């Protein structure tokens, strides 16, 4: 089992991700730790700018692990989330959807 999740910041910018975990809390904690340690990326910049606790985490799909990346790419193409590096995901999703 895998999860597709969405992170929203206070100004409604969104990040879409996936995890192989069956529950979202361990992934939330990983994001928090990475933010504290200074990881680079738009979503981590958002955590530092608005405060980690001012972001909402929402599971948007529970799916078989083998289909998770493909569904994540499809959702990224559909939502065009501001906090993802969309060009990278769109390129890897080409021909898979």
Order of helices and strands: EEHHEHH
Could you list the spans in which at least 5 consecutive residues all have pLDDT below 50?
Answer: 88-97
Total helical segments: 4
Mean pLDDT: 88
Secondary structure: number of strands: 3
Gross geometry: globular
The class by helix and strand makeup works out as alpha+beta
Which strand order does the major sheet show? 2-1-3
Please give the largest β-sheet.
3 strands, antiparallel
As a percent range, the share of helical residues equals 40-55%
For the record, give the distance between the C-alpha atoms at the N and C termini, rounded to a whole number.
20 Å
- Strand residue content: 15-25%
Radius of gyration: 13 Å
Explain this structure.
With 97 residues, the protein is α+β, with helices and mostly antiparallel strands. 42% of the residues lie in helices and 22% in strands. The chain has 4 helices and 3 strands; from the N terminus they run ββααβαα. It has helices at residues 25-36, 42-50, 68-79, 86-93, and strands at residues 2-8, 14-19, 56-63. It has a 3-stranded antiparallel β-sheet, with helices on one face. β1 (2-8) and β2 (14-19) form a beta hairpin. The protein is globular and about 35 Å long. The chain starts with a strand and ends with a helix.
């Amino acid at each position: 089992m895998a999860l597709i999740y969405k992170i929203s910041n206070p100004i409604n910018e969104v990040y879409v991700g996936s995890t192989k975990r069956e529950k979202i809390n361990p992934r939330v904690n990983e994001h928090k730790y990475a933010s504290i340690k200074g990881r680079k990326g738009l979503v981590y910049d958002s955590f530092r700018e608005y405060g980690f606790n001012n972001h909402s985490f929402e599971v948007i799909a529970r799916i078989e692990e083998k289909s998770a990346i493909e569904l994540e790419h499809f959702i990224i193409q559909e939502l065009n989330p501001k906090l993802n590096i969309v060009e990278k995901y769109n390129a890897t999703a080409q021909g898979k959807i």
